[in-house]
Design brief:
With 380 residues, the chain is an alpha+beta fold. Helix content is 33%, strand content 27%. The chain has three domains: 84 residues, Rossmann fold, CATH 3.40.50; 65 residues, Dna Ligase, domain 1 (2-Layer Sandwich), CATH 3.30.1490; 195 residues, 2-Layer Sandwich (D-amino Acid Aminotransferase, Chain A, domain 1), CATH 3.30.470.20. It contains 13 helices and 17 strands. The strands form three sheets. Strands 9, 10, 11, 12, 13, 14, 15, 16 and 17 form a nine-stranded antiparallel sheet that branches. The chain has a four-stranded parallel sheet with strand order 3-2-1-4, with helices on both faces. The chain has a four-stranded antiparallel sheet with strand order 5-8-6-7, sandwiched between helices. Bound molecules: adenosine monophosphate (AMP). Adenosine monophosphate binds next to strand 14.
């Protein structure tokens, strides 16, 4: 009996545990919160990721360890890797934890990125904003997620306000300023690399964010084959360079028909949730197969799929459940503003059927605005 240890016990760990059940796997989840939602399906060890005694207990009870949470301290991941196999490896985790290191690696690998700079002072920020043309985003280098730890600078006049908001973090987690990319689309490649280097990607996904948080995903993204191929080639280069094992997502901006990499997530990813019902093998199942050294499953898409995120509170399930291709995921979390509490996936054999199902669900739930950009893309 194999036990997979997961650091972080949120919905990603929960969906990993659910997808691992048919493989006969057991799980142990570690989280700082006693009510972490994966704990409803797997034994939960409550502890701080820096607590060696808790990490030692975790290590003694698992055969292999992986992550649902990318901000587990890199030193803790290193410490653990001295005791049990850890996938992805701690170096990959460390790179993905730091926007500056990550973007520098993209550039070294020839993966196109927008202009960016490390900033340590207000003067440096002012100079960089001038150099980058005024429209920028100031971000924390580390520990930011879902648009948190970011300040949109529309012109040099916003520099003081940006520094006021985030400047104190220049000496703790560090700051990076990026040129604002007026992108036409946001895309992601969800990919998996096995222990032996075998590599697969799911079809490219198009994503829509609201206030920096993913709202909807459509797969396959309606892009030309050359662009999809380029995106997958970037993902492969990155995975090989990091000797990455497991699933990851590479987030990309599409602008003037070209691609610019934004960031990588070293774990299963929200933009890959549609793969549970919309692909031959889900990202969760393939992540487990990868970390266990099992053959990877096909990533072929089954028709077309759209995932809608539920943020804050769950809507009524009925409208989705009555759709032929409607699938419901309630993470079992307490409602809270801004919190990801669940998602739905609608799957159909054609774009027009998917658009119709989205419109019905949007109307029934009063979420026309959430489905509108996806319907527009499907109808375009
Ligand atoms: P991130 O945390 O970097 O993934 O940013 C969250 C969201 O903010 C992205 O999905 C984009 O919608 C937006 N965003 C982040 N960086 C940029 C940028 N340099 N230019 C334009 N939009 C951005």
């Amino acid at each position: 009996m194999t036990t997979v240890g997961i650091l972080g016990g949120g919905q990603l760990a929960r969906m990993l545990a659910l997808s691992g059940a048919p493989l006969g796997l057991r799980f142990l989840v570690m989280d700082t919160a006693p009510d972490a939602c994966a704990g409803q399906f797997a034994p939960l060890l409550v502890g701080d990721y820096r607590d060696e005694a808790a990490l030692a207990e975790f290590a003694s009870r698992v055969d292999v360890a992986t992550f649902d949470f990318e901000n587990v301290p890199a030193e803790s991941a290193e410490w653990l890797a001295g005791r049990v196999p850890v996938f992805p490896n701690p170096r990959a985790l460390a790179v993905a934890q730091d926007r500056l290191v990550e973007k520098t690696l993209f550039r070294e690998l020839g993966i196109p990125v927008g202009a960016f700079a490390d900033v340590g002072s207000l003067d440096a920020l002012r100079a960089e904003v001038e150099r980058l043309g005024g429209a920028c985003i100031l971000k924390t280098r580390r520990l930011g997620y879902d648009g948190k730890g970011q300040f949109r600078i529309k012109s040099p006049a916003d520099v003081d306000a940006a520094w006021q908001a985030l400047g104190a973090q220049a000496t703790t987690v560090g700051l990076i300023v990026e040129a604002f990319i007026p992108f036409e689309r946001e895309l992601s490649v969800v990919a998996v690399r096995g222990r032996g280097g075998e590599f697969r990607t799911w079809p490219l996904t198009e994503n829509w964010h609201v206030d920096g948080v993913l709202s909807a995903s459509l797969a396959p993204a309606r892009v030309d084959a050359a662009l999809a191929e380029a995106a997958c080639a970037h993902a492969r280069k990155l995975a090989d360079a990091l000797d990455y094992v497991g699933v990851f997502a590479l987030e990309l901006f599409c602008r003037d028909g070209g691609l610019l990499a934004n960031e990588m997530a070293p774990r299963v990813h929200n933009s890959g949730h549609w793969t549970i019902e919309g692909a031959e093998t889900s990202q969760f199942q393939n992540h487990l197969r990868a970390v266990l050294g099992l053959p990877l499953g096909d990533t072929d898409v089954l028709g077309q799929a759209c995932m809608l995120n539920w943020i804050g509170e769950m809507p009524d399930a009925g409208a989705v459940l009555q759709e032929a291709g409607g699938h419901w995921h309630d993470y079992g979390k307490e409602p809270r503003t801004g919190r990801k509490v669940g998602h739905a996936t609608l799957r159909a054999d054609s774009a027009s059927q998917l658009a119709e199902a989205l419109q019905r669900v949007g109307r029934a739930l009063g979420r026309e605005a959430q489905v509108a950009p996806v319907v527009a893309r499907l109808s375009g």
